[in-house]
Amino acid sequence: MRVNKMSCFPCCTSQEKLNKKSLKKSIKEYQQEKSVATFANISLKTDGGNRRFLAEEIAKFGKGNITSKVFSYKELCVATQNFHPANMIGEGGFGRVYKGHLKATNEVVAVKQLDRNGFQGNREFLVEVLILSLLHHPNLVNLVGYCAEGEQRILVYEYMANGSLEDHLLELTPDSKPLDWQTRMKIAEGAAKGLEYLHEEADPPVIYRDFKASNILLDENFNPKLSDFGLAKLGPTGDRTHVSTRVMGTYGYCAPEYASTGQLTAKSDVYSFGVVFLEMITGRRVIDYSKPSEEQNLVIWAQPLLKDRRRFVQMADPLLEDNYPVKSLYQALAVAAMCLQEEADTRPLISDVVTAIEFLARKKEVDEPLKGTPQSGVDSCKHNEYDKNNDGNNKYDNNINNSECDRDDNSNENENDKKDDDDGISTKL
């Protein structure tokens, strides 16, 4: 039985509802009515005409709901000390990100200067301005404003003090402290809630299309927020089952059906979430050419391990130093395995993933023993509110709660070892 998510989360405010309606009337019209030729014409206009054109487009399709501030290039030069290299805090295919200070508001911000020769063009710039101006959620980064002066395409975000998840998971310096298990689950929960909002709260739904560790930003308390919406697409509506589009994103994170056919659905984002969640559990990059050939692709490396219960602990990030609850490890691997299934239809909805990870994020180490400590598997694996709303027939709930948790009851370990030796995480839904 599908859990009614509206009973689990606060209703959207009236303003958010208005924003959803605005999104439906604006970005949808924008993507349906504007041709590629129109975008190409933007770069051919004079500086003044170019600036006016972008302002008119944002005003037109934002339906008057765009509250983000319009910055001049000079203002942002002052804020970043002329984009001084010492202020650079990130770099990618889109361009560079600088830490800046807005004197007028005494606000610290992150200033993303898009590379004119990079992956993000005028269309991506406009889509990001529209989406982040019209949709608001605690797990989506806040857009402070933008600059479209001359050939400059600059986005100004709230400053996230702890950088990206990638910085703390995959780019650790020798003096960096690894993320503990509970913090990882907290980050996974918030990131999943951001996707849930895009998939199930936004109207029409939004497919993120670029879910990866470097796009998950962390505030001073390690609360996660999704960023970089230039590749986002409006999801299918009505009788449509998918959106057909050219394949974009980052190698390794793309769902197999999307990579091979260009058919995009919300389940494509679920697959990408599974990849990142597996990175969080293992501390490994999805693609790492520094490892032996058989271990370079994280998903391929993990597949045989997920089929053998005795090898689950081999998948835990060594930097955790065994400081994690073993049952939570098993449950987390179950969630990742379901998200990573080849067939999109057999993957869970992101709302079901949120429910499962909420349970893992709520568990405290003091409440659950660390690896190897006896405890009843049945009692430790109940989903609290989720179970109350579930009649026991939910395929995801059964898979997560029962397939692994019951097996780990140490009182029956010896008796069941022979029977369960070849049992991995069940992903047959």
UniProtKB/TrEMBL annotation:
**What Enzyme Commission number(s) does the record list for this chain?**
2.7.11.1
What are the protein's GO molecular function terms? Answer: ATP binding; protein serine/threonine kinase activity
Give the residues annotated as coiled coil: none
Pfam families assigned to the protein according to its UniProt record, in alphabetical order: Pkinase (PF00069)
Q: Which UniProt keywords apply?
A: ATP-binding, Cell membrane, Kinase, Lipoprotein, Membrane, Nucleotide-binding, Palmitate, Serine/threonine-protein kinase, Transferase
Q: Which PROSITE patterns match?
A: PROTEIN_KINASE_ATP (PS00107), PROTEIN_KINASE_DOM (PS50011), PROTEIN_KINASE_ST (PS00108)
The record's subcellular locations are:
Cell membrane
Q: Known InterPro entries for this protein?
A: Kinase-like_dom_sf, Prot_kinase_dom, Protein_kinase_ATP_BS, Ser/Thr_kinase_AS
Its membrane topology? Lipid-anchor
A single GO cellular-component term from the record reads: plasma membrane
Sites binding ATP sit at 112
Return the annotated region ranges for Disordered.
Answer: 368-429
- Stretches of Basic and acidic residues bias are at 380-390, 404-421
The keyword Transferase is annotated on this UniProt entry: yes
Stretches with biased composition (Low complexity): 391-403
Major site of localization recorded for this protein: membrane
What this protein is called in its record is non-specific serine/threonine protein kinase
Give the originating organism: Flemingia macrophylla
